[in-house]
C-alpha cells in the first residue's frame, strides 16, 4: 500500500476533486456528514444510558463528535511525521491536515449505522431473523452469504450501506474517508475468519454493497486477503479511527458512570491518575472548584496522554501496516493498556450491567422484533405470498415512508434490507412510539 493511493480523493460518482476549492475533498466529506439526516438522528440514539434526561450523559451524537475531535488530533499528529518520512506526499500536495481531515470525517461516521438501543439493538435484529418462524419464511430465498448478513446484523456494515446509498445523494464521500471508516473490510460469511486479527472480529459490508467495497479497495490499493473473495487488508488510518473510539468510550463512559453515581469519584480519579502518571498533580486538582470540573480536567489530560501514546504506536508500526502485517488495536499496545483494561472491566461490572441499561436492552428486543415482524411480513406477503396479505399488512406498509417501500420485482433480500434501513435508522424514541402505535397501546387522539 502507498499513502498517495490510500489518500484517494476520488468519489464513487467519478467526479475529480476541484483543485481550486477552498475546502479539501476530505473537509467537504466532514461537512457533508455534519449536515446529513442520518448523522442528525444520532442525537436521540443511546450511547450507554437509555434515553437520558440528564444533559451531561452522552448520546451517539455527542460521542461521535468527540471521537471525531480525537481522530483529527491523531491524524494530524501522525500526518506531520508521515509527510516528513515520505517526501512524495508533499510533492503531491498532501499535508498533515489531509490526514487529520480523513480521520475526523471517518470517525464522525463510525456509529452512523448503529440501530436504536445501543449494541443490544444489533443483537435484537439478529435474534429476530434466527426465530424459527422468520427463518422458515425467508431463508430459502436468500443465499448463504445474504442469510449470514441477516442473522448477524452489524452496525458497521449498515453504516457503510448508509454512506453509499443512492438516496443519500448529499454524501458521496471520498474513497479515502470510506476506507478509513471501514474497520472490518470483509463480508459476514468468511471461510477463514481469524478473530485474533482485529480487522476480522466483525464485518464491514453487506452483500448489497459488496461490489461497492471492491471498487473502493481497488481505488485505494487495499490488498485482497489470500484465498478470500470478499476480504481485504485494513486501511492504515482505520487504526486511528478505532483508537479515537477506544479512547473516548473508555474515558467518557467512565465519566458518565461517575456522574450517574454508579462509580465513585475517587475510583474514577484514580483511574485517570494512573493514565497520567507524573502529569497528575493532586494539589492542582484541589484548586478546581466542583467535582464535575475536576473530572473534566482529568479527562482532558488523560485523552491528551492517550493521543500521544497511540500516535507513537502507530508511527512505530507504519511499515507493517502498509505491508498488511499489522493486526492489533493501537490501544492494546499503548503503555496505558493495563489501565484501560481495568477501566473496561469496571465499566462492565458497574455501568454496562446496571439496571437502567439492562431494562433498556430487554425493551429493545421487544420493540425491534415487533417492528420488524410488522414490516418484513407485510412486505413479504404483498410481493411473494399475496394470498396471505391482509388489511393489517396493508396498514403496516403505509406506515413505512415511501423511500423505504420496496418496488415490485425486488428480491426477498433487498426487500428485507429496505425494512432494516428504516428500522435501524429510527431513533430510540421514534422506535418506541411506533411500536406502541402498531401494538395499539398508544392510540392517536381522535
TrEMBL record:
Q: Which domain of life is it from?
A: Bacteria
| MF-aspect GO terms | dGTPase activity
Q: CDD domains from the entry?
A: HDc (cd00077)
Cited InterPro entries: dGTP_triP_hydro_central_sf, dGTP_triphosphohydrolase_C, dGTPase, dGTPase-like, HD/PDEase_dom, HD_domain
Keywords in alphabetical order: Hydrolase
Offer one example of a GO biological process linked to this entry: dGTP catabolic process
List the SMART domains hit by this protein, alphabetically. Answer: HDc
Q: Which residues form the HD/PDEase domain?
A: 56-259
| E.C. number | 3.1.5.1
Q: What class of enzyme is it?
A: hydrolase
> Is Nuclease a UniProt keyword of this protein?
no
Official protein name in the record: Deoxyguanosinetriphosphate triphosphohydrolase
Species, as recorded: Cesiribacter andamanensis AMV16
